[in-house]
Description:
The structure holds 2 protein chains of 2 kinds.
Chain A: E1 4-8, E2 10-18, H1 23-37, E3 40-46, E4 61-69, E5 82-85, H2 88-94, E6 103-107, H3 113-119, E7 135-139, H4 141-149, H5 156-160, H6 163-174, H7 180-189, H8 194-213, E8 219-223, E9 231-237, H9 238-253, E10 257-261, H10 268-275, E11 283-286, H11 290-302, E12 306-311, H12 313-329, E13 333-339, H13 356-361, E14 371-373, H14 379-394, E15 397-403, H15 404-408, E16 410-414, E17 459-461, H16 476-491, E18 508-515, H17 519-531, E19 537-541, E20 543-545, H18 551-556, E21 558-565, H19 570-579, E22 584-587, H20 596-608
Parallel strand pairs in A: 1-8, 2-5, 5-6, 6-7, 10-11, 10-12, 12-13, 13-15, 14-15, 18-19, 18-21, 21-22
Antiparallel strand pairs in A: 2-4, 3-4, 9-16, 14-20
Helix pairs in contact in A: 1-6, 2-3, 4-8, 6-8, 7-8, 9-10, 9-14, 11-12, 17-20
Chain B: H1 38-48, E1 59-63, E2 78-81, H2 87-97, E3 102-108, H3 109-115, H4 117-126, E4 131-136, H5 171-177, E5 182-187, H6 191-203, E6 208-213, H7 225-228, H8 233-236, E7 237-239, E8 247-248, E9 254-259, E10 262-267, H9 286-293, E11 303-310, H10 316-331, H11 336-340, E12 345-348
Parallel strand pairs in B: 1-2, 1-3, 3-4, 4-6, 5-6, 7-11
Antiparallel strand pairs in B: 5-11, 8-9, 9-10
Amino acid sequence: MEKTVEVLKSATVRFAGDSGDGMQIVGSRFTETSAFFGNDLSTFPDYPAEIRAPAGTLFGVSGFQIQFSSQDVYSPGDEPDVLVAMNPAALKVNLKDLKQHGTIIANEDAFIEKNLNLAGYKTNPLEDGSLAGYKLIKVPVTRATNNAVKDLGLTAKDANRCKNFYALGITYWLYDRPLDITMHWLESKFSKNPVIAEANIKALKAGYYFGETAEIFTTRYKVAPAKLPKGIYRNITGNHAAALGILAASLKSGLPLFLGSYPITPASDILHDLSSFKNFGVKTFQAEDEIAAVCAAIGAAFGGSLAFTSTSGPGMALKQEAIGLAVMVELPLVIANIQRGGPSTGLPTKTEQADLFQAILGRNGECPLPVVAASSPADCFMMMFEAARIACKFMTPVIFLSDGYLANGAEPWRIPHETELPVIEGDFRTEKEGYFPYMRDEFLARPWVKPGTPGMEHRIGGLEKQHITGNVSYDTANHEFMVKLRAEKVKNIENYIPLAEIDGDPEGELLIIGWGSTYGSITSARERLLAKGYKVSRVHLKYLNPMPKNLGDILKRFKKVLVPELNLGQLSMLLRANYLKDVIGFNKVQGLPFKASEIEKKVIELLTEK
Amino acid sequence: METETTTNGTIEGAAKPKLTAKDFASDQDVRWCPGCGDYSILAQVQRVMPSFNLPKEKTVFVAGIGCSSRFPYYMDTYGFHGIHGRASSIASGLKMARPDLDVWVTSGDGDLLSIGGNHFIHTLRRNLDIVILMFNNKIYGLTKGQYSPTSEHGKITKSSPFGTLEEPFNPLTLALGSGGSFVARSMDRDPKHMQDTISKGKGHNGTAFIEIFQNCNIYNDGAHELYTEKDTKPDHTLFVENGKPLLFGAKKDKGIKLNGFRPEIININEGNNSVNDVIVYDETSKELAMIVAQLSDFNDYPVPFGVLYKVQKPVYEAQMEEQIEDSIEQLGKGSLEKLLFAGNTWEIK
């Protein structure tokens, strides 16, 4: 049967199954193929905190969503067009997000009584007509997979594990994706176990051919390559980009990189990546705890390394005292906080932006330090690089904020050439004459003197320092002077960061201000609003402390300022406090990114209210 | 103390005048209470430093918080006064980043064993080539007299007016149990022994842990006097030396004999006992070190001093360097350009 081909601008697919079903793997493969194919894309992995939650349960459902397009993509998409549901629980958890009249590809073999009970279905939704509003495609994924690999002599368990690639094959056919990239990946992944590679390839092809031959698909979709700026691209997650960013900073500054870290979700991939860069001379230290990790990094900074520590919210809380020490001893240090849902252990695998206060305000005493935030997975590279630049130039710890959504989400990245990256100043003083440990240059930075430099032996520490000499001082007037000096040093950085840029009119009815990972959702929402004829400007902050020095002026020029955040209004409070502007918070703390439609709706509400 | 002379005679620094103890004293006023045992430790450290023949600028003293932790301010070397309990971690990071430096930790019983206990045990098992000096006064001095993790059970202090409810740590068995490769003890009132012990610790390639009994004459005066005063010291202390029998007492007539795993005190001049029954110390035996280190946990046994344990183990930072070198040898020196453009890439024209 000849099938119609419908050309789409963009499409969103969500794979959902048990946490052991390999949904993240096939999601990543679909991403890689689409990126290679030239689509712009954005992904959102959403998985439970438990590594292998009990099979078939609602809380054990793992999902991976990707939006791919022939145009620019800023978010992983609000509502999937296609939901691949590997079992009843996956259907139940994800159905509410599916687009009206969207397509469900369900593994009917998994809709057995036991699984239906676990998911809380009284009757089988594939049979009882409750899915009538959707395009339901029932596929015997388990049986078909077993059939496809039966000649390979696999155990029942191994054969069964190939079913995710069968499902992937169906989606490849549906969206006209090539198979070869995934086949190469399987061959290299299982190079030591070629039977497994072969089985998965057979399953993938069988799924693809099922799409081609089955009578149930009447339409096939095409999403053409996007027109992205010229260059060489790769697909990258936020954590990989962050690891490359700090490595690049090390190489461009000539400072050896030292990472002290302790495993924590969702930051651990940064530790993993840097641990593999040994041939770059990178030293990584998995410490006994978060405190030891940051303290070791501070020790390395004293020794002249580009010192780095990576963590997430709970670990950040543990590091705060040591970060205060770094502020006092004025050594460069980069601290990456890959935020997750809090407080306490909170939602380890979900995203949130609720550590902004912790970053800006979270230490004892008057303890200011620069804070930067990445706005997209690929942006983690440059903002990490920027954090290192600021740390070295101004002799200060710098906090880099990302979050679970950026960390694990992926997008195409136009790779910069090494020569395009700026040089980072990380100079050591060796001139003995006139040297004092707490003297300052024009940036108010103190000199960095490495142990081993003759004649410049000095002591630093957490006790208050006498201005210039750096000797311990309990003098009250000196203390106030030093508190103000440290504040001024950080504030002065506003002169060495870019001004805030306004997308849209420089003044008007409504301005949206966001920071960090909401960039994509806000951009998509604004595009939709512009298409509908609404006038909306926006500023996206990457520098949270100090903020760009033109921000106050920008705020004055708009009647209404909307601040969408994945917290209860932390940036809102800072803007109100710093600029006396009555901004309007739009807040969500569900462990998920904003949908563009949510922001769109809120803006329309604000623009039409009387 | 004699230092080794080199045979080639042209080593760098040979032209420089030989450093003295004074060269290691900083210009800062020492602010410990008069009569504090810390003065003796500072003096002994400054006395032995020149014997290591290292340039001052290569030496770094790292400390946490507490009276002991002010130590770096008084040494004219590089120094880092960190935060409470974290000296081992700061020192570890520094030593990993800069294996060329000579790194020392000065800490107290509270700083190292209580708030810093976790870092202490892990630092020992990693075995970086550093020296840890723990000043043990069995009290919190800087916070004015609360019980510490080495205070004896039932100790009356400001925070335990009815006596403590907890058993103290034995720092030596804790260090041995943590995989320490050099475990020793000395005391503030025996300068020669302290100098000798510190020198041995410095000579050890690996983490050298040295507990130093130190008197806090304000909040815990006399805590160690049984071991430090002339008339009681001989009967209450056991100075172990590698290859020598474990003898003690004013006349060196008492010895430690092993009955199975159980140590017994014998008099070598009485009954059937002779010096041949006494254990000959072997500093490479962890079993022996554990038994002798535990003597202080029992009444009527002498408290051991000296180097209880010393073995060569792989050194952390050396292995770290080796992995890097091996990796460069196998993969070539890393190229950022190659790494950035690695994996599946595609071109948009």
